[in-house]
Each structure stands twice: as C-alpha cells, then as structure tokens.
C-alpha cells in the first residue's frame, strides 16, 4: 500500500506517519509538506533513519497542481491533512487559511482528477468538529453527528467547512472515491506549543503562568492523536466512498478542568493561572457522537482516557525539552534547511 499524506510534518500528520509505518509493515509513505511555521521535520527525524526504504519527504505546496498530480499518480491512498489550523491566528489574518484550506483543497482535487480519471484511488479528507459551530453548556444530551448542519464560528472553521463542501461536491459531481472525517480536539506528543496543552505544560516548565481564556467553562472533547490516526487509517482502508465519519474521544472536559488537571500533574496550584480576555467568538462546547464509526468500522478510542493519557502527554513534553525549546527559539527550522542544502550539493 502506497500512501501520500499532505501536511505530514505537522502535529497530527507526523503522528500519522509514525503510526502508519509502525503498524503496517507493507506500507510505504510519501509526506508532502510546505513546512510553514508549524511544520517540523525534526518530529520525523528518527522515522527517516528507521524507514529509509518506506518513507520519503517531499517539500512542496498542495497548490502546485502539477507536483500534486505526479505524486498522486504514484499513490494508492491520499490522506489530506495539510491545513492552517490555529483559531487565534485566523482571527488576526484569515487569508492564509483561505489560501491553504480552501484553494489548496481545490487544487488537490483537481490533481486527483487528473491523476486518477477512473476514481480508483482513495482520498480521506481530514477535517474538524469546529465546522458544526458550538453547543450550549446546559444541554449535555446534544452531540455533533454527521448530519449536524454546518455553522462555523471562526475564519479557521469557515475555511475547513468550505474545504469539506468542495470534497463533497467532487464526490457528487465527479464520483471521486473519498470520505471525510471530522475530529474533536487532539492531544499528544509533537504538538506545536501554541496549542493549549503543550503551551500550558511548557510554560509551567519555565516557571511561567498559564493563560486561561475567559471563565474557563468552555468544553472540549479530547481525543488522543494516536486514536485519531488509527481511525483515519481505518477509514482509508475500510470506509465507504461518500461517507463522513465523526471521530471523538468520549472525553469532555472544561478548559478550567483541563487547567487544574495539568497543574496537578505538574505540581503547581491555581496561583499559576492567569485569566486573560476571552477569544473573540469563542465557541462554548464541542461534543462528538462517534457512534457511526464504531458501528460501521468497529473503532472506538482506547488511548484517550484521563488522567493516564493526559499525564503521559505532560510527561512527554517534560522528557523532550530540547524538542519544544528548539521550536520556541526557532532553531527547529535549521534541520530541514541544512538537509536541503546537503541534497542540493549532492551530498
């Protein structure tokens, strides 16, 4: 099985590369990544060394239709994860989100049609539960299902909703062999330290307070990244064309509850909380109904349960200080630049 993944040097992407190669001995994988600020090739340095015959990195942009067409022609399965994904950044400047998430997805679909006119190749478009908007805090019985109407609240979620619609349109109009997945909040190793869990853990490791938005009552369903990767690979292998699958952790926690849990694990008290002005348009609650993927494909989360999964994640950042310090300093960019220079020189 030959897999092409877009955005494989990001948080979820790098964990997917690792999971797929370690769990499928007959699989080879090409990782196309533009290496924008959150793409970190150091996250896969050991994979390059362990699987030199089955893993290849390609520096490229999903908006390059010719390059995408060539790469898709060599693949059996395409996992589309390349995306701008940070809500705060989208509020400051939404244009990169439109360029990557919307235009980039359309370019990938164009390339897929050119490389695979008979629709034999499989595409999994990886999306988010944020496309559904939010749920009221006082209705714990309400969950996002695959038929929940879209109601995005941020430039980020609006761009992902747009990309989902483009994939659905291509399924309907051109008959492409594609499925869509919508996941809840991921956590685990190799997450860029602007996101809440690694941000809080690394702040505490440096003796800094943790910034908590608003009243902290916002609720998220937390999904371990390897549970997510397992589900995406299962959808690629066994999912039905045209179907959407919600992927959740069955693990709802308020941001305040999350914050106190991290403080307890890291040996701090609530004096380390700094309440900050709430994010504009901050969604109150996300909650996934993942019964469809459990019923149809037999998947359910097995790694997301707290407190064990959260403690293991906090310990990963504690044990891998050099990894996140190189991100904060900007040194992580040097690894790819040095490797690329060596290849250019024929070394």
Automatic annotation (TrEMBL):
It holds the Pfam family GDP_Man_Dehyd. The keyword Iron does not apply. Residues 4-303 form the NAD(P)-binding domain. The keyword Lyase applies. InterPro entries: dTDP_Gluc_deHydtase, NAD(P)-bd_dom, NAD(P)-bd_dom_sf. One of its GO terms (biological process) is nucleotide-sugar metabolic process. It catalyses: dTDP-alpha-D-glucose = dTDP-4-dehydro-6-deoxy-alpha-D-glucose + H2O. Keywords: Lyase, NAD. Its cofactor is NAD(+). GO terms for molecular function: dTDP-glucose 4,6-dehydratase activity. Belongs to the NAD(P)-dependent epimerase/dehydratase family. dTDP-glucose dehydratase subfamily. NCBIfam families: dTDP_gluc_dehyt (TIGR01181). This is dTDP-glucose 4,6-dehydratase.
